[in-house]
Amino acid sequence: MCVGLSARVVSVKDDTALIDAGGAQREISAGVMEDLEPGDYVMVHAGVAIAKITETDEEEAFDVMETLI
């Protein structure tokens, strides 16, 4: 089973994005995403942004993760 993490993009430089996931920031690969901008929300898997999501999607994913842990 694969688990993705929802996060907000803080900054983008070249093919790397700085994300904020529940207050924790880290750099991830953003090379497969087009037009990624600060403020966007993404789903992250294995250190790679794999899809843009809405803010509502991010809130729902965060709530689910909070319930599980």
Summarize the structure.
This protein is an alpha+beta fold. It has one helix at residues 55-68; strands at 5-13, 16-21, 24-29, 41-45, 48-53.
Q: Spans of 5+ residues with little confidence (pLDDT < 50)?
A: none
- Give the total of domains: 1
Mind telling me the C-alpha Rg?
Answer: 11 Å
Overall geometry: globular
User: Please, how many helices?
Assistant: 1
Provide the spatial order of strands within the biggest beta sheet. Answer: 3-2-1-4-5
What is the fold-level CATH name, i.e. the topology? SH3 type barrels
CATH class: Mainly Beta
DSSP helix fraction: 10-25%
- Biggest β-sheet, characterized? 5 strands, antiparallel
Alpha-beta classification = alpha+beta
What does this structure look like?
This protein is α+β, with helices and mostly antiparallel strands and 69 residues long. It has a single domain (5-68), classed as SH3 type barrels. Helix content is 20%, strand content 46%. The protein is built from one helix and five strands; from the N terminus they run βββββα. The chain has one helix at residues 55-68, and strands spanning 5-13, 16-21, 24-29, 41-45, 48-53. The chain has a five-stranded antiparallel sheet, with helices on one face. A hairpin with a 2-residue loop joins β2 (16-21) and β3 (24-29). The longest helix is centred in the C-terminal third of the chain and has 14 residues, at 55-68. It is globular and about 35 Å long. The mean pLDDT is 89.
